[in-house]
Amino acid sequence: MRNWRAYPESQSKGATGCNVSLRAAQLLLSLLAITIILCQISISANAEDSVLTFGDAALALNGPWRFQVGDNPQWADPSFNDSSWETVDLTPKPGAHDGDGGLTNYTSGWSARGHSGYAGFAWYRMTVRVVDSGANTLWLAGPALVDNAYQLYVGGRLLGGIGDFSRTPPGVMAIQPRLFSLPRDLWVVNGQHLSTVIAFRVAQLKGTSTAADGGGIHIAPVLGTESGVRNHYRLQWLEKAEAFAVDAAEPVFLLILAVMALSMLPFDPKDHFNVWIAAVLILLGAAWFNQPLFWMAHFETLKDFVVWRLTIIDALLLGAWIMAWRAAFGLQRLRWIGYACAGLTVSYLIARPLSTALLLPDLPHAVISGFATVLKATRIGFLLLLLVVMWLGYSPRGKWLLFLSILTGSVTVFGRELNELGVPGIWFPYGVGLSRSECANAAFAAVLFVYLIQRLWRFAHAVRRTGASGSPI
């Protein structure tokens, strides 16, 4: 679904080339009766000789757009002269995807277009002329990926957007597919043509993106008839749902494993590993489930996400991760490991919110930078503590499943460190997004299941041999 291919007409008798092939591919992959004609074209901004003609279709407004950083309410006025602005082309490269959810038709933001590190407001404007088909309303599908919020103006009128612009800085939520109707009174009639100015006011908050290609619109909006745009809108939602389907499914298996671990407690209440690994699985499941919750449910703000998901859950997960393997190796007597783990957890809870300008935009940059260094040092401290636990508990016999569980799970838990080492977070074999963390999480769940069964067998064997409870280390 992530990579649409067009086949020659000779391969489909009675078909109309690209359009029918697109339908067939989508029917096979999604089993949904969705039809769409999506033509990506370049439209010259403010060019009187550029006229769009379409029937039951949707046209990607790739550009070039007029672009300007800053903010001025007059820039929404159709009569404003934007000829001195920069031009931006949002035409995606073939097979382009974003590096997180794998959304298609992705293009680089303003950081890769001469405005590296810029955070604030910026405007995109385009004059659009279409053949007057007599339809009362045209439709527009908003950009499916924007850093971080936007408002849409058509003919100088605010039609809506995503984000709360009544606040300073604007309140930010996840960008979702959005439909806008463009009634006839938004267009200027000129003979057989209609024209209007489409403008996007975009806001990127401080501390929200450090990507080299971040900032602004990443996927072009789509204009067309109601049927064509609605079909494209449905495909956008289908693609987004596909991107987070695994994130919603994996927590179920993690919770089942947590119940399995806790069900072993009555047999050996002194084995603290079962409690700690259950805590790890619950926290890991909460972290994964929060991804689709944030992107799909649209009630959690970006600030809520940073506080709840990136601060509280991550800190507790790292702490529980160390304590679980400490118990698995039978190192409870080494209390200093628990004290060090608690100290690192508290350090993380303090440093994480103070290391981003999103939560405290008025905090001096030097302070934010300092806490970012503390946060990085804290994560490295967790990693070093894990290595110490593994070294102290090392045994050449019978521990390979334990070490394999730690290895596969750490790919997810210490994913940020892998990113900094340049390990890709997502691949696209055959056009399908394959997440590193999703694969590692699935492997961790499978290996941990076998390890839990092994522990249960060892315990049962010890009870059968001695006739009393024993701890299967």
Structural account:
This protein has helices spanning 18-30, 226-262, 273-297, 302-328, 335-354, 365-392, 400-413, 415-420, 436-466; strands at residues 38-41, 58-61, 65-69, 86-88, 120-131, 137-141, 146-147, 149-154, 157-162, 179-183, 188-190, 193-204, 216-217, 222-224, 426-427, 434-435. With 473 residues, it is of the alpha+beta class. It folds into two domains: 36-224, Sandwich (Jelly Rolls), CATH 2.60.120; 244-466, Rhopdopsin 7-helix transmembrane proteins (Up-down Bundle), CATH 1.20.1070. Strand 15 (426-427) and strand 16 (434-435) form a beta hairpin. Helix 4 (302-328) packs parallel to helix 6 (365-392). The relative contact order is 0.10.
Number of domains: 2
Shape: elongated
| CATH architecture identity of the largest domain | Up-down Bundle
Order of helices and strands: HEEEEEEEEEEEEEEHHHHHHHEEH
Structural class: alpha+beta
**CATH domain class of the largest domain:** Mainly Alpha
Please tally the helical runs, counting DSSP H or I stretches of 4 or more residues: 9
Overall mean pLDDT stands at: 84
From the 3D structure, determine the CATH topology of the largest domain.
Rhopdopsin 7-helix transmembrane proteins
Strand content: 15-25%
Radius of gyration (CA) equals 27 Å
Summarize the structure.
Helices cover 42% and strands 16% of the residues. The protein has 473 residues and is of the alpha+beta class.
Which key terms come to mind for this protein?
disordered C terminus, alpha+beta, 473 residues, seven-stranded antiparallel sheet, 16% strand, 2 domains, Rhopdopsin 7-helix transmembrane proteins, Jelly Rolls, disordered N terminus
